[in-house]
Amino acid sequence: MSSAMPAPAQSRMLLSGNDAVARAVWESGVKVAAAYPGTPATEMLEAISTYPDVYAEWSVNEKVSLEVAIGAAYSGSRAFCSMKHVGMNVASDALMTLTLTGVIGGLVIAIADDVGLSSSQNEQDSRYWGRFGHLPIFEPADSQEAYDMTKAAFEVSERFQVPVILRMTTRICHVKAMCTVGERVPHEATGFKKDPARWVMTPAGAGKRIPLMFERDAQLRAESEASAWNVTEAGSDRRIGYLTSGPAWMHVREAFPNAPVLKLGMAYPLPIEKIKAFAATVDELVVVEETEPLIETEIKAAGVACIGKDILPRQGELAPAVIAPAIAKLLGEPAPQGAAKTIPIAPAQVFPRPPTMCVACPHLGVYYTLSQIKNTYIAGDIGCYTLGAGHPWNALDTTISMGASMGIALGLDKGRSDADKDKRILAVIGDSTFMHMGMQGLLDMVYNGGNVTVMLLDNRAVGMTGGQNNPGNGRDIHGQPAPRIDFAKLVEGLGVKKERIHVVNPYELPKLFKTIREEIKIPEVSVIITDQPCVLVQDYVKQHPVEVIDDKCTGCGNCVEVGCPAIHVMRREKAVKPSGKEVELQFVQIETAACTGCNLCVQPCAPGAIVPADTSKPLRLIKH
Amino acid sequence: MENQVTNILVVGIGGQGVMTATEILAEAAIALGQDVKKTEVAGMAQRGGVVSSHLRFGPKVLSPQITCGTADLLLAFESAEALRWCHYLKPGALVLMNTAKLVPPVVNIGLYDYPADPVEEIRKRGFEVRAFDAMEIAMSLGEIKLGNTVMLGALGDHLPFPAENLLDAIVKRFSARKPALVELNRKAFAAGRAAAASQQNQKEAA
């Protein structure tokens, strides 16, 4: 959470890119800011919500957040909207016609690309939206630029009456760097002016706006040519000149301190004449851009010879360690020498440490149960519960996009071949994802007579992004009371039969198991709602921890299958069952210092070896 | 051009306080008027994943990322993570590490093995190691959460600025947030510093 709010003007602080944008949004006099949480963009709106004089909201999805911002900008107020890269796929329907109407109040849309895939399902390049939507793009390289360019973007947005994209990446959003901040300047709105020819996009109206968009393109190209954000940095080594934008600029400067560089800050439309002039001053032009070859393709089409993705990767970050060897090869030099450019010591082979579900997570009960039910296909969705695809549960078979579990489950049902005729189809979706984009899919499933059992995991938070509030937990972005949606009523309203809707406590394994077993046999749409809160949010109440009685543990390993990180295997032994089958026994202990007493492991424990911990002794930290 | 930037890599797993420790270290460098960049490579770190926090400071810092083979110091909150990241160091550089072993579910269920002797494996790669049980030290002071400050204390004598500057940053942070804990943190810092120093003495004696 930002601490920028109390800082006076001229303060120089260590700010993340997200916090720097938030400060600039506040200083720019923005009236409305809206977003749906998504890594790495989440903290922009979280920070904005701590400032006074800005209306901030968690919207139910990115499209709604953009539409809220558009309405505010139509009314002449300044507006801001932020999202992760894939969020724009959802919001793009509004974006692609917004470009025709334009705006009155400045509208800046921050899109955060997850270059390097820290927490996303793909690595798409959001700079395409500028090209697709005829919209200018600013590309900051660090926190100070994120701050400065946000302010510049509002100015450009108002001057050209065009929404502006601020293209962030994980390496800007989450890097903390020094940033000097300024003063807030209130922005006076003009008020909404009725103008159907502009605001009502019928075919006739849109047809008249398209030529205006092309005129604006030309004006923005001229702006880009003259922009002080597109700047040439002189260098003594003219063998290669670098054309770059965003965080790649820092990496280029780090790796090649003596090279000439043309840095694009207002990176779209491209300043072609400036680029041509720069290219003429160097022997070879290399384009360094994350991730797709957009600049490269466009300047080649404009007749500028350059090298780009034929030597640099189209995936991931272009860190110094990536670009330096590629350039050395281009120059016909040996691989870079010296500690700075090589890896002197080979990395050690160490086990992977993938993210896990938390101790006592309510999803553990769901996935433990799903892993015990055979003959299923389980369509998954996006959130913490995507981790159910991993060990030890292996209980999730698909994930592509927000809300997709609904449609994919219906498609698996309707598209099933004879080979799958006995398969039970389930869908697993979280509360927030369901409200984001799952409700329509469920409606479709009901309307079209699907045979799917939907697990709606209501943990009362947007868990994976840090437990943000949503309409399911009755709190707004500030933690203040808000209307709380009733999921059972909601799904009934979407047409699910009342007797097919069950609200189950996911810590009560026998009931959960029985309910799922019964519902998957009924060839209709069922919805099983689990109703216990995320262990990381305020609604969660810790219970008395449990421990293992060593003498009673038979090593059956049932509790290990729950997948709780507080359960530790301390000893393994080979044994032969009466049937002659060889098994590995796993003798366990529970880290009582971490255990919150959810009792999930107690229930499958065959010998009853897991009991309430003796808390008169110090809580146990497991030492391996 | 002489590279005057100091590169410190701080590693561990989500929830151990790696990012906070790096933030305090950054505050110490800022107080000395340095340019600072701090970046995490943390894939869903809150869920028990690997966290590696890169801190670079000096007169002017460009790229926030430490390139493999250029780190001046590695501060590791967990043993296997020390081994995982040690190749980021300059040859022969110093590893300050907690001997705690945090075993993830993939090891727990038998899919992978935990390295038998991480300290030895790091030494074999030519790095200097000071290993100590930061949690034990913290518990002896009566509060497990002091482990973070113990780790920073271990770093105290190995920075390009005096340990007192780092201690000042810790004291400043706790004075603002939890003044009652300032004295305990001073003790934890001193204990961490002593733990790292005593290993040096052992080595010299040997």
Please provide a written account of the structure.
The complex is a heterodimer of chains A (624) and B (206). Chain A is of the alpha/beta class and 624 residues long. Chain A has helices at 17-27, 42-48, 62-74, 85-101, 127-133, 143-160, 170-173, 196-199, 203-226, 248-255, 272-279, 294-301, 320-330, 362-372, 404-414, 431-447, 487-493, 509-521, and strands spanning 12-16, 32-35, 55-58, 79-84, 107-113, 137-138, 164-169, 176-180, 230-233, 240-245, 261-264, 266-268, 284-288, 376-379, 424-430, 453-457, 501-504, 526-530, 546-548, 567-576, 582-590, 610-612. By secondary structure, chain B is an alpha/beta fold. Chain B contains 8 helices and 6 strands. In chain B, helix 1 crosses helix 7 and helix 2 runs parallel beside helix 4. At the A-B interface, strand 8, helix 10 and strand 20 of A face helix 1, strand 2, helix 2, strand 5 and helix 3 of B.
In short:
The complex is a heterodimer of chains A (about 625) and B (about 210). By secondary structure, chain A is an alpha/beta fold.
